[in-house]
Amino acid sequence: MKIHPHITQRLAVIAMWTLTASTLGVLLFIIAYILGHGLPYVTWSFLTESPKSMGREGGILPMIVGTIWVAGLAVALAAPIGVATAVYLTEYTREGRLTAVIRFGADCLAGIPSIIFGLFGFVFFAIYLGMGLSVISGALTLALMVLPTIIRTSEEAIRAVPHAYREVSYGLGSTRWQMVTQVVLKSAMPGIGTGIVLSIGRSISETAAVMLTAGSALGFPHSVLDSSRTMALHFYILSREGLSMTNAYATASVLILAILVINLAAYWLMRRFIAKVA
Amino acid sequence: MLLMLTALSAISGLALITGFIFKEGLPIIAKVGLGDFIGSSDWYPSEGRFGILPMIAGSLEVTAGAMVIGVLFGLGCAVLLVDFVPPRAVSIIKPSIELLAGIPSVVYGFMGVVILVPFIRDYLGGPGLSVLAASIVLGIMVLPTVTSISVDALQAVPRAYREGSIALGATEWQTTHMVVLKAARSGIVAAVILGMGRAVGETMAVIMVAGNTIAVPHSILAPVRTLTSNIALEMGYASGDHRQALFATGVTLFVIIMILNTVALTVSRRRGRRAQGQ
Fold first, then answer.
1. Do B39 and B53 form a contact (C-beta atoms < 8 A)?
2. How distant is the Cα of B80 from the closest Cα of chain A, in angstroms?
3. CA–CA distance, A69 with A138 (Å, rounded to integer)
4. B44 strand-pairing partners
5. Global ipTM
6. What is the DSSP letter of B86?
7. Looking at CA atoms only, how far is residue B159 from chain A in angstroms?
């Protein structure tokens, strides 16, 4: 028996909509479930107090501070290097063996699992360079991890800047450096920003790599050489060791809210960039 | 010059990671013997017996399960996004799937523990913490990777192919599965392989839902330990040979990932060359 192509078509469309709708359903369910169980416990004191008795009670202020330190430092280190790499790849060299090697390096780095980054950061930064389990070990490890994302998005953003901009800049007598910094980077900024913002999100979410490099101390980090527990790791420890479900849900809610804000910011920057170069 | 040096950061990072992971892991593989290390099921660190066969089997099973879900849903979303919905719907669905990629892996693991694991235990039997639970959680986690790379591949298929097919009287679905999917095949293969890399490398979510028993699982309802979980679970207290064996587990994981990455890169590069040739 032969089924009419139009019926197959209809069935296929229904099937694809079902798959997509259930995917979006999962997303909504996760967000609603976590926020529904956790938001009521996200009080002012939860955000501004230190944890008591291993996190069973009290708040998460040291973890918020630790997360900002580790993620902020990681992106602050990776962003200039990543953007400089993208500038070099797009404006200062021709495609050849060197660019192929650089791209291969970035592509491979992007595929390496976070636990391997964790092992490396542990043996290299913490032990070999003697930084110990600390904010700086964690930040350097995460910086390597987000570097490929920043290179890739910056490169795409820079390439999307119309060629005419560059020609006009040269025509006005600027040097290549002036052209790059004042024309190309300026126009590409929102696009580069998208990559940077997404990297902040990835750094905040990361758990395996920071567990092995930044440690899990409960107190405030007083310097970059102090160990510090990030929110994601705190959430993992709270739920895994069954210390406090309410605090686990509340910590997860803060994490989810941060990720939502970050993704919205990235989305907004991307739209601005598209509006700017198109 | 300075720019060129920064541009080499990614590749030097990759070299450092490779160097240090192998330096820490290879001695114990040499001591135990490669055959015994990857071919034996006896993992008794205190007695100096290190066989990671169950973890290799575990990683493979969990990844295979994840790919069934990730590819089915991921590809369904991608095809729908590219050819079957108006731009307005794309502007909602696409950022949502990107948001799915931004949710921390610990949150996925947690949702697995509170929703999926009890469900499996109550309705399908077994301990709940299982290959099945890990596969489902990982499947959802790799879906955004599969979708976004497949979308790029599908969009790269020239419009003329679609128009030609429609003009010959094919329905939209016939066009999709006979023309577009075929033309985008190598890009989709790359998407699947990169998704596999993510599934093999994921750590925290798997630890939380897989049960972590060291035995080759004989049923999808049996608990399982993966290569990544083995490292993350024992790294906290390991020392001496035991720690080296965990690095050697990392070496095994690293080799698997590098093979997957190289295959994915080669496949997508071939696609690039073919597209240029046309």
1. yes
2. 6
3. 10
4. B49
5. 0.92
6. -
7. 20
pLDDT for B1-35, tens place per residue?
A: 778 888 888 899 999 999 999 999 999 999 999 99
Average pLDDT for runs of 10 along chain A of length 278? 83 94 96 96 92 87 94 96 93 86 90 95 94 94 96 92 89 89 90 94 94 90 90 94 91 96 92 84
Task: Give the up-direction half-sphere exposure of residue A145: CA atoms within 13 A in the CB hemisphere.
Answer: 34
Residue A113: C-alpha distances to residues A101, B88, B257 (Å): 20, 35, 8
Q: For residue B115, give every residue at least 6 positions away whose Cβ sits within 8 Å of its Cβ, in sequence order, or none.
A: A33
Produce one character per residue of A234-252: b if its CB has 16 or more CB atoms within 10 Å, e if not: bbbbbbbeebbeebbbbbb
Tokens representing residue A105 in the block: 């390096």
Residue in B13, B99, B201 closest to A27 by CB: B99
Nearest to A19 among B73, B102, B247 (CB): B73
Which of A9, A13, A16 to mutate against chain B (most B CBs within 10 Å)?
A: A16
Predicted confidence (pLDDT) per residue in B205-241, tens digit: 999 999 999 988 888 999 999 999 999 999 988 888 9
Rounded to whole angstroms, the Cα distance separating A206 from A221 reads 18
| Beta carbons of B240 and B40 less than 8 angstroms apart | no
Q: Which residue segments constitute the domains of chain B, with CATH numbers given?
A: 20-277 (1.10.3720.10)
Question: What whole-number distance in Å separates Cα of residue B202 and Cα of residue B154?
Answer: 27
Phi, psi of A134 (to 5 degrees): -155, 170
Nearest-CA distance A170 → chain B (Å): 20
Closest of B238, B186, B229, B194 to residue B210, by C-alpha: B229
> CB neighbours (10 Å) of residue B219?
11
- The nearest alpha carbon in chain A to B206 belongs to A208
Q: CB burial class (10 A; 0-12, 13-18, 19+) of residue B65?
A: buried
What is the per-residue burial (b if ≥16 Cβ within 10 Å, else e) of A120-130? bbbbbbbeeee
| pLDDT at site B269 | 75
Contacts of B96 (CB under 8 A, 6+ apart): A24, A27
Interface test with A, best of B204, B225, B256, B263 (most A CBs within 10 A): B204
* Cβ density class B266-275: b for 16+ within 10 Å, e for less: ebbeebeeee
Residue A237: closest CA among chain B residues belongs to which residue?
B106
A-chain residues near B24 (CB < 8 A): 119, 123
How many angstroms separate the CA atoms of B243 and B240, rounded? 5
